[in-house]
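Hi V.,

You were right to ask for the full record rather than a summary. Here it is.
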Amino acid sequence: MKRIMKSFLGRIRLLAFLPIVLLSLSVKGQYTGSLTLEDIYNSNKYDVAGFGPVRWMKDNKGYSTLERNETSGGTDIVKYDAQSGQRTVLVNARQLIPQGAALPLSIQNYTWSEDNQLLLIFTNTRKVWRYHTRGDYWVLHVATGALQQLGKSLEEATMMFAKFSPDATRVAFVSRNNIYVEQLSSGIITPVTNDGSDHIINGTFDWVYEEELDCRDGFRWSPDGNHIAYWQSDTKGTGVFYMINNIDSIYSQPISLPYPKVGTSLSAVKVGVAAATGGATRWFDIPGDPRNNYIARMDFIPKSSEVMIQQLNRLQNTNRVWVADITSMQLKNILTDKDDAFLNLHDNIMWLDNEKAFTWTSEKDGWTKLYKVSRDGTKAEPIIKEQLDVVSISCIDPKSGFVYYIASPHNYTQRFLYRSRLNGKGNAERVTPAGAGGQHSYQMSADARWAIHTYQSAGTPPQIALIQLQGHKTIRSLQENTALKEAVSKLSLTPKEFVKIKTPEVEMDAWIIKPPGFDPSKKYPLLIYVYGEPAASTVQDSWQGGDLWHHFLAQQGYVVMSIDNRGTNVPRGREWRKSIYRQIGILAAKDQYAAARVILQQYPFIDSGRIGIWGWSGGGQMTLNCMFRYPGMYKTGIALAFVSDQRLYDATYQERYMGLPDDNVEGYREGSPITHAANLKGNLMIIHGTGDDNVHYQSFEMLADKLIQNNKLFSMMSYPMRSHSINERKNTSLHLRRTMFKFLKENL
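Predicted structure:
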């Protein structure tokens, strides 16, 4: 269950909504005084300035980015030399004005051909669920300046995932669940598939594959350009959920959504290969029921006629890796990764030694580490020896023989760059300078010489600079967010303090924000912000938009805290993360309750009669479990966009962490807040968007019905046709926060 939190907080699983402020171009003016909800949610006063997007050039000597062209009203593609800073306009916005048009194409994304002579531009985009993946494509011929629209015979804004053939003479794309190839010289469009329909999806995916497996682009060119391998999904037989739009017409409009709930039928998914010139598709005969397995990843092995396919079983605790030959259609199982709990997918495969070996990420020794595996799978050697978790891979550089990665083996709230030798020799080396705190990320050139380095902390907005990696030397600052720092400094915010909460069973990371003018001799109400599920963590030493919602509450006299219970996604080893298996909502609520008891002992300024808790999505579910399972502790709670009964959520997420419902009847029952609703004693507000395609409004209505049956008084707020993020349409975000604050003032 994801909630989009770009920076990166990025993706949406049963994610809690961290109250971040999204990126914009500038901070408008200087501001003093206390925070207001209007300033946070309506005025953009505290928005973060970003930089980019950045693409490293193929020669690794510079990078390209997009810059506004004030003259033409469009966007230039500009190159900067890393060493000298010299600026070169690669594509002027004027070159992107179609014949007869007044303005240049807006650039949502762009791709260069291998020889840099053709530019593929994605524009006029539309959202498909979370992301803008549907729109129009144009090709700029650099030598002649000709601007060519693709898919002219197709309906506007229906093209997806267009990409050049290896020789850049053609472009393949998806439109209305079929795959097409267009010849650039003639404009002739050839269908590769023709059976796409409401049920048959070619070259892209259904809702649950996109949401839970991060699958969107569903086809691949073969290295020789003669074939296309692709996923096909058959959603027929998958349960259909209906949402109702009651506000955009005088008659209600049903919205159908194929959505496999826990224990129900999945889409049947398979992988086939077809000639790029069209014709019949040949299908790989992958063992196992296609409705009870996932084809999670598929890619061509470079310089070959073979694809590597990753097949997850339904429980997602076994990943079988197949090498499949598109000529013979034969399959070979070269690797099988297993876990007693669940496996996480990783996109860290890089082929080495002339495609004789590849990198592979696994937790098989208790930590998330990188391995080097032979092409036939017979030999797997660890690249990283230390007991640490790789959070993400920044760069694999075969020439220098190093892999660069983000880790934090000693402080789980922070993030630093390390490197290890690909041959497994020597020890891990920290690249981020010693003594640096906060969180560091790196967008590196392929030769690991340069990087766009971003530093941030709970008290420091993102600071972006170009660095030379050797010596971690800053070459030039790219974005310092000076205006934002000055604006926030005038608010006199109390710093977020990172602390440890030690219960009889476990020590947990936490943070605390105290009110301005804090007096330890007084008693303060405590509001706990909770997430608690395996998809994310709330206790991170990062900017998170300044966490201004919680600072606003602190200015109103609340102490605000957040605790990462066992099972949250932090680099503390496999046992920490997977202790939650088959007991979502049970172990985490127990840890949160135990932490609250310790907090009362550790901080005598907390009023034990005024403890509140709130959370979004997975955090909403956790709020309910804490309120219902431990009613004597929590006086007030606000639960947003929650799952009340775990059987109502999608099969892929919930079964990954809970197993199948028939095999874990007690876990599903005990972990679902609705089971314990009769225990409610405190003040509860539940909030949901009626257009939530992720956690359906059904979950809200079922809990409300159960509370009514048990004669429990509560408050409720529905946001018509708002999604899981409850931020669409005019004034929604401000109204939501005003509603929450009013409830807290009256009840905490």
